[in-house]
Inverse folding.
């Protein structure tokens, strides 16, 4: 059976298990999020090595507002500080940062940090890291439909128009979605594009991910036979 000769062009990652990682060590959940960001750096470096063009990291979902005020505030603070504080890392490795999600509803300092980092990295071309923040697949589809209808003035919308009005329509469609920490669900991630994405679930908690895990993801992807409803 023919399998994919190359790795995924666009990989989506549901980074899960930060809280469990911290709990196992009797640390606060926030310590897990700090370690999770270290994993993200290891992963993006290896993704670049593997020739992946885009990695979308599920960073904060539209449902994550349900967490304690303290955890939400900590996550927002961490995101802002890593956007600003890691700029030299992004530029050194040619990483372009982009964001996906309902950014309008984020605190102004988070929106501002995103806009500034997008601008400061826009000429980097080795790999694109997309931060899915205040992101929900259902929300994105609703916003895409709204945009499409507004543009066309029509009462119906085609699949193509929805695709063209997603948050970052110029990116290649996601080829594979992976999730850490042994959970097997999408939790509202990239719902439109997951229609034909390959899915894979791994036991390891997100803070323990690094180059080896990404190598394994690429190996697993190459074994998949993608048919898109057709025949080989
Ligand atoms: C993923 O780890 C990070 C975010 C959702 C922000 P969790 O915080 O969900 O970790 P667990 O699932 O509680 O272990
Ligand atoms: C999904 O993880 C969201 C992110 C990774 C940002 P969650 O931990 O929030 O998902 P559930 O609640 O287990 O489905
Ligand atoms: Mg979780």
């Amino acid at each position: 059976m023919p399998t994919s000769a190359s790795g995924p062009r666009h990989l989506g990652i549901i980074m899960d298990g930060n809280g469990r990682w911290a709990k196992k060590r009797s640390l606060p959940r926030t310590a897990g999020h700090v370690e999770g960001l270290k994993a993200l750096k290891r992963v993006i470096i290896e993704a670049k090595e593997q020739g992946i063009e885009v990695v979308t990291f599920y960073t904060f979902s539209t449902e994550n507002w349900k967490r304690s005020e303290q955890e939400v505030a900590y996550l927002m603070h961490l995101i802002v500080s890593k956007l600003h504080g890691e700029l030299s890392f992004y530029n050194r490795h040619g990483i372009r940062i982009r964001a996906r999600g309902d950014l309008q509803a984020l605190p102004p300092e988070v929106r501002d940090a995103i806009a500034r980092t997008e601008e400061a990295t826009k000429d980097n071309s080795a790999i694109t890291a997309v931060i899915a923040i205040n992101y929900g697949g259902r929300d994105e589809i609703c916003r895409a439909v709204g945009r499409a209808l507004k543009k066309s003035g029509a009462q119906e919308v085609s699949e193509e128009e929805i695709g063209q009005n997603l948050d970052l329509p110029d990116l290649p469609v996601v080829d594979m979605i992976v999730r850490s920490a042994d959970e097997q669900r999408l939790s509202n991630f990239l719902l439109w594009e997951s229609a034909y994405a390959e899915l894979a679930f791994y036991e390891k908690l997100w803070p323990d991910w690094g180059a080896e895990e990404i190598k394994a993801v690429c190996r697993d992807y190459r074994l998949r036979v993608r048919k898109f409803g057709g025949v080989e």
